[in-house]
Amino acid sequence: MVVSQRKGAQPVSRLALAVHVAILAVLAVQAPVHAAEKANISHQQAFTAFHIPAQPLDKAVLVFAEQAGLQVLFDSQRLQGLRSIALNGDFSAQEGLARLLGGNPVEYRFTGERQVTLTRVSGEAQGALALGTTSVTASEGNGNSADWVYQTPDAVAVITREQINKRAPRHAADMLEETPGVYTAVDQRDPGLSVNIRGLQDYGRVNMNVDGMRQNFNVNGHQHRNGVMLIDPEMVSSIEIDKGSQSMMGGAGVMGGIATFKTLEASDFLKDGKEFGGRIRAGSGIGEMGNGTYFNGGGVFAFGNEVGDALFAVSERHFGNYKSGRQNAGNLGTQIRLKNTNREAWKSWLNDEVGDAGSVTRSQMAKFGLNLPNDQRVQLTYLNTDSDSNDSWTYGRDDLSGYDYVRHSKNNLSTANFAVDYSFNPDNELIDIEAKLYYVDTQLDRANARHNATANNAFDGYTDHFRTETWGAQVQNTSLFNFDAYGQLTLNYGLELYQDQFSPSSNKVPAVNEQTLPYVQGADPSGKRTMASLFSHLEYDYNGWLNLNGGLRYDRYRLEGKTGMTLYEKNVVRYENGVAVINTDPSNRVERTYDVDNESGQFSPTFGIAIKPGVDWLQLYSHVGKGWRPPAVTEVFMTGRPHGGNAPERVFPNPFLKPEESKDWEVGFNIFKESLFFDNDRLGMKVSYFDNRIKNFSFMRYGVYIPETTTSNFGDLAYVNNLNDTRFRGVEYQVNYDMGRAYANLSYTHMIGSNDFCSNDYFMGGAKKYGKNLKTSLERYTRPNGTQGLRVVSETEWLDDEKRNNDVGCDKVMGNAAYMPADRGSLTLGARFLDRRLDTGVRLRYSPGNDKDINTHNYANLDQALWPVYRVYDLYASYWATDDLNISVIMENATDEAYFVAMGDANNLSLARGRTLSGMLEYKF
């Protein structure tokens, strides 16, 4: 059946937010005619997420073909002078094309299941003209599915499945390494992922989510990562990064941005009329150059029809100890692992295997979708990922012959995600409803090694259990108002709600010296935080050259929990023969507790503008906005001795911690130009400058003063608010050029400036001073030798000291924010051969490092930014032997560079892998 429709007729109604092709018939050549007709219609009604701004019609059609996965036949010359309508949202191919054409004198006809022909009409009386045609086919393997990024006037980035496959990532952080403005605090032994956007991470500053389900788990450690998520690259279809403050779904409590990990859908495998499909992938290291890379792969199976669909996926990942790189080791400086003083041990460390680096990760996913009457859809999702790994620190041997990796714990981290999605998208431009209910349960079981110390400080091995439960609900609607020649207005509004419940436990038997304190549960407290947010976002697009958008969000939070600290309060100070005597009488000991129930709210607006200054390929844009993040459970309630026994480190709570407030702005430009040097080549470029100022930035300070004391200890720590504005600014570059046979990708992030972190020494107040003498007398006492004597005894007032309460200390910061992330970039050059079935390339990953204190490292300060310079080259090749069978090979770190990418915790530093060769087989069916 051939479907022909002139724009203006009623479009075919669609299933709301359907994510797969509902096909009833088998291949047309094997089915009767009526089955082929049904297949054609089914494909036209399958839904695709389109991102196509208004632009010249011939170029818009090229983008449409790419995003819809169709072959479009048309004569580009006959479409000159016509402009498309902006197309943003989930539409069937038929309705999407009808909207894109708008009121232009163009007809379209679906002449095959995946083929559509455009013809321009010269008027109603004359009818349609037969035109010469140009074939435009979606280029799934050309890496251009992210072209919408270079046409979006906002700070966005996308990592496609093709990009992920080209590296076969071992750590989830590898997927993000080529994305400008995005960093990761990497622990080579821990598969957990912590996303940093433009210098911001931890405690929800970045919304890390899987299909919209927030991953808010955190276990407090040495401040390099306070918030990790567990995601298996085998389950990821793409990653979308939205940077800066947000006024749409997912922006509650966010200041750095949103990192959305989208998982596989049944529609990814049910194309071309298939009712079932899937893939099998299996990879491993190759020979001696495998370098600790064992099995890495999994399988996916999907089936469906017009009633519904289902997807099942499993994967496993096995990695072991590995050799680090050895070349250019001088870049590591002289102080890391004490090269200057322990040169032989340092050489041994460089040449030996990185120990206790083995990990096993297993994942299972199931999705069930049901297409309901009246354009509704319901989908159930279950995703579980479980990982076993170790935590080891590096210790020098007594004879200085080398370093050993000493295991501190064995860890099992698991995350279970459950979600119910509902959508309703009838043939009404005012209604496009999406709703989600979800539950995320993340648990860490940590088997800690015995702590050997003096008798009163030692404790046996024990197990910690950390659990974070997140409940969430989301609902939003998008309304479209089309004013034809006067532009298009899009209104998005909704509600999101989530609650985090932290529940730690431990079977640890405290050391003798540890039992004197009441708060010994460790650094990860229990508590509950609830966030609710109402949001609205309005976008106006006029003829493709002017775009205005603005949003308003209202966030409200509630924090509940109990915490405390042990103090020795003094009403007077006693002197004996002029020497002050500390009164340790238990009657002066106070267990100060805080039963916290805080609640507050904040409005946060955003505004953006974009224009095309006379040329269609250039777009200038700017964005300003505000963000707000209330304190998290750990920041407020954290208390106790993290190292146990009578260790000098003590963590104190801060129930008076203030919310963070951000003001960010950005200015940039997009370039998207096709047929620049050759026919059908394309250039995409995105360059932006960003500046984010944060008031009351929360950081962990060491050397705080606690109430009732006159001196501080280096190991006394607490979360405090920075009295200075904390500023993160820089420039991002992203360039993509593709001419079919060859392509290039460049990304670079340049961070600017530094921050000073200052806070009141007495972060909770309570400073005291000596007042007037109350009395002086003689007192008889017994000397150590048993003889009697007299001594002068006096008592002095112990008064509040407002001056010292206002004293400020600076740069006693512990954490990843102490220094800006170092600049980082990547350059990929690739070429395609054999009808583009063979894709080969080389990638350079580069960082100039920040070299901050690289040769003056010591432990006088805890804020080292140990990030040396590195240049790492990777080689890759991918060959599609058939349409269904792919063979890929990658050699990472081909020059065997000695390097690491670090954002904190000097004790856990482990060099990255040296030269590693691995392969992957993929079969699609």
From TrEMBL:
Stretch forming the signal peptide: 1-35
InterPro entries registered for this protein in UniProt: Beta-barrel_TonB, Beta-barrel_TonB_sf, Plug_dom, Plug_dom_sf, Secretin/TonB_short_N, TonB-dep_rcpt-like, TonB_haem/Hb_rcpt, TonB_Hb/transfer/lactofer_rcpt
Cellular component terms per the entry's GO annotation: cell outer membrane
Pfam families: Plug, STN, TonB_dep_Rec_b-barrel
Biological processes, Gene Ontology terms: siderophore transmembrane transport
Family note: Belongs to the TonB-dependent receptor family.
Protein name: Ligand-gated channel
Lineage of origin: Bacteria, Pseudomonadati, Pseudomonadota, Gammaproteobacteria, Pseudomonadales
